[in-house]
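Many introductory courses stop at the sequence. We go one step further.
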Amino acid sequence: MGKPAGYWVNKIRTSFKGGSSSSKSSDDGSASGSRKSGSKHSRNQKTEEGNKNVETGEAQPESGRKVMVVVDTTSQSKNALQWALTHCVQDEDNITLLHVTRTPIGQGLDETQRERNSRAHEQVHPLKNLCQLKKPNVKTEIVVVETAEEKGKTIVEESKKQGAGVLVLGQRKRTSKWRVIWKWRKKAGMGGGVVEYCIHNSDCMAIAVRKKSNNGGYLITTKRHKDFWLLA
């Protein structure tokens, strides 16, 4: 018998937040409640300690997961980040904004790599400001990677190198023409696009996010779920 829709919503939301999706038996109810209470107290205590460190200027110990969001200057990237800040990132997590750029050929060689990296940082810095506005207690960093390789491969390698626990990518609306090309590439053994590559090859959970129009929530795609609809 299939599970009700609410079951899958709760299961997916829990996995985004980094918790366990397995259910406990009723016999463990009181013990589970005690553990939850203790866990909540521990999280509050860590938050208070973190705030004290911020006020005194002391270095804060890193804890929680590293949530990596692939960013650029597109609206899809910003939508994915907004979703992650609302539905995925917790106060004990760290955020890495990964911006992958192509190594220029010919025309852009007069500009040094350092200059290109500086310009790339400036392009996505407004997204870091957004993170600091929405999650002021969460550490946010920008990582710029210039590569001549395939973008999907670079993202997967960098997420592994950075120790990401969750990888979030923005996704464009699939047009009928895109679907035909994607099916042809798949049959030819060429694989899909960047998002599909990351979902199927990342060591951590990779989540593709596409915002529906007219405040209709988000469509979420992972290895196990395709275009799963979540309200905003």
